Amino acid sequence: MAALRTAFRPAAKSIITPARVAAFRTTAPLRIGAAGPQVIQGTVNDPAPIPPVSRSHGSYHWDFERLVSIALVPLTVAPFVAGSVSPVMDAVLCSALVIHSHIGFDACVTDYIPERKYKKLAPFATWALRGATATVLYGLYQFETNDVGIVEGIKKVGGGSSEAAMNPSENNGRLYVTFVEPIYIIDFIALKDTSASRCN
Fold this sequence. Notes:
By secondary structure, the protein is mainly alpha-helical. It is built from eight helices and two strands; from the N terminus they run H-H-H-H-H-H-H-E-E-H. The protein has a domain at 68-199: Up-down Bundle (3 helical TM bundles of succinate and fumarate reductases).
């Protein structure tokens, strides 16, 4: 029995080889870059440092994020459903969208570019995000004061206007309601059935 076992052992080893496994590969091997710099602070026997307790970076910060996220729901729907455009409502909507986007991108920077590993890149990414946020705020301010505003602008992108939204009969029966998110725009278009009225 032992002789039989040893007789089949080399064959079993030679059946599965890297060349045979590679033959079943359907895609090219992915060459990923080297890992980022590995930083070890202290020794393996030292406890992990505990960050100082701060409510502004803890529960208050989390509550503020949730409040902004929840507030975006009525803020994005109300101007389009009501049909009236208010500069104050436009400004509040723009501010909430920019704050919500800034918090999300800041979390990405914190997670993927940690300061303990990237001493120079992390502060640069943080300040680049702040600069981009300030630029967006300035652009929206110019758009609000010198143009039609974000709500009216989105209605025009969707193919409607405030007058068309308030009077669907004057726009071939179309009622435009636009829902805004920081990254994408979705248009919900309710069409009035005009074929039945034509038959009558």
